[in-house]
Design a protein that fits this description.
Strand order of the largest sheet: 1-2-3-4
Shape: globular
Number of strands: 4
Order of helices and strands: HHEEEE
Number of domains: 1
Strand content: 35-45%
CATH architecture: Roll
CATH class: Alpha Beta
Distance between the termini: 51 Å
Number of helices: 2
Helix content: 10-25%
Structural class: alpha+beta
Radius of gyration: 18 Å
Length: 131
């Protein structure tokens, strides 16, 4: 009888999923004009926001531990400093829950970019030792 190791297949699935999503999304934004904006044809949906969030290089260090997508807020806003002025833009907030942090990733779907990554450390309350 031959034993099948399903553990390796299960571990490689998230990596393969992110790689495929990365290959599909990244070529969507090509702009030859000299401007700071880029028109992209990314679908305006939760899957796009999750794909952009999970493939962002600033988010990858948090994904080393087990994580879950805790929520998606398509009506979020974030304020950025642009050309010396603060600008508030509409974003989609992808919330990723890890062992130590809750990571908020603000995705600008029309421009196919992650504009902000904010990790909120979890605070653990010590449990008194039983006597």
């Amino acid at each position: 009888m031959e034993m099948v190791n399903l553990g390796m297949k299960r571990q490689s699935f998230p990596l393969l999923f992110c790689l495929v999503l990365f290959i599909i999304i990244i070529p969507g934004c090509t702009d030859t004009r000299e401007s700071d904006s880029c028109f992209c044809n990314c679908p305006d949906d939760n899957a796009t926001a999750i794909g952009l969030a999970l493939t962002n290089s600033s988010v990858l260090p948090y994904l080393g531990s087990p994580y879950t997508i805790a929520g998606i807020n398509p009506r979020a806003e974030t304020t950025l400093l642009k050309n010396g002025n603060y600008v508030t833009i509409k974003t989609t907030d992808v919330t990723i829950d890890t062992i130590n942090d809750t990571v908020h990733v603000h995705v600008d779907i029309p421009n196919c970019t992650v504009v902000s990554v904010w990790a909120q450390p979890k605070r653990f309350i010590p449990v008194p030792a039983s006597r």
